Amino acid sequence: MPRDAPPADGPFDIVPVDAIRDGRATDAYFERTRTTLEHAGKNPRVVAEVTADQFPTGEFELLGGVKDAAHLLEGLPIDVDAMREGRLFDGGPVMRIEGDYLDFARYETSLLGFLSHASGCATAALDVRRAAPESQVLSFGARHVHPSIAAMVERSALVAGLDGISHVAGGEVIGHEASGTMPHALLIAFGSGHQEDAWRAFDEAVDASVPRVALVDTYSDEKDEALRAAETLGERLDSIRLDTTGSRRGDFRHIVQEVRWELDLRGYDDVGIFVSGGLGPDDLRELRDVVAGFGVGGYVSNADPVDFALDIVERDGEPCAKRGKLSGAKQVYRTSDGAHHVGLADRPGPTDGEELLEPLLRDGELVREFDVEKAARRSAADADDVDF
Ligand SMILES: O=P(O)(O)OC[C@H]1O[C@H](OP(=O)(O)OP(=O)(O)O)[C@H](O)[C@@H]1O
């Protein structure tokens, strides 16, 4: 262990924030690179770019992680241009860094991690959003991932336009209050046959601002429990939630329609139906006309990271690149038809092209603000005129 590394004395296997900030959250070969370049007296001025695909593919993904990436690089003597959080990308750089290589080399690992993981979750969340544009969709997936990344998952869900999140501390980090009502554990704590007591106690105990959403699949048939919940809470019941386990699901759409029928027949037309449990975009398309909303977890939280890489494309003013990558500092343009174009930054772009790489840091100073809601509006606008 290097002498300057602090002892591993924390209770959890979580890389500390300080290690990310000071560049120790890095792959060891960057430390060897620094040692070697310093030994050789080399520290070239470079332009480096973060890119997934070299050329536009027409397969759009949603950019996340920009805020964390900006704070990672803040204070370094470098200039950074980047696409905004919540913009679509499909090829060419999403970020461009100019500076002396050793000033930022050790940050590559964390930089790519921030951008790759958040963009993967945001892209999956956008798939979900587009599958049910009119429905309420909540992010339920924090349970599947390490708690240290819950805020990233929830922010990515919101950037893609999902309507709410479930993770309390994650919400505190990103400034968005978590929502949620009851797990099966609450019903089980009251015992089989006593679901009414659980729903009633929830209604008595929980703040009036929280919607009354009764979970209705714990011990008996969904239709039976839905009607019992409606009779127990009457007009106080806002919604029911069906989280029917996979082994009992059969035709889930039919179950939902049957419950809807029986509620309507008895005058409970205003009671909404929420569904959850292992849902993805295809399920949302299949159910969106018969439910009010969805809880989606693993599809978003377990998304594959985007395969970003950081590559040097200019060294001491001369274009350069490793095999398979494109030399030269680039700009990415979005034209009015929603298509993206990659060109050299010092050449004219398409006449109606909007430049997507915008200033993020100037000599280490942050020149941009971050706002989740604005990012969500950006992703909705970008996605509007693109065929996925
Ligand atoms: O399947 P996902 O899309 O990842 O969604 C996350 C979870 O949310 C629901 O759990 P619920 O709130 O009912 O929890 P409980 O079964 O622990 O009570 C559902 O059972 C999923 O396991």
Automatic annotation (TrEMBL):
Residues 27-119 form the Quinolinate phosphoribosyl transferase N-terminal domain. The keyword S-adenosyl-L-methionine does not apply. InterPro entries: Aldolase_TIM, NAPRTase-like, NAPRTase_arc-type, Nicotinate_pribotase-like_C, Quinolinate_PRibosylTase_N_sf, Quinolinate_PRibosylTrfase_C, Quinolinate_PRibosylTrfase_N. Its EC number is 6.3.4.21. GO terms for molecular function: nicotinate phosphoribosyltransferase activity; nicotinate-nucleotide diphosphorylase (carboxylating) activity. GO terms for biological process: NAD+ biosynthetic process. This is Nicotinate phosphoribosyltransferase. It comes from Halarchaeum rubridurum. The keyword Transferase applies. Keywords: Glycosyltransferase, Ligase, Transferase. It comes from the Archaea. Pfam families: QRPTase_C, QRPTase_N. Coiled coil: none annotated. Residues 122-311 form the Quinolinate phosphoribosyl transferase C-terminal domain. Gene3D superfamilies: Aldolase class I (3.20.20.70), Quinolinate phosphoribosyl transferase, N-terminal domain (3.90.1170.20).
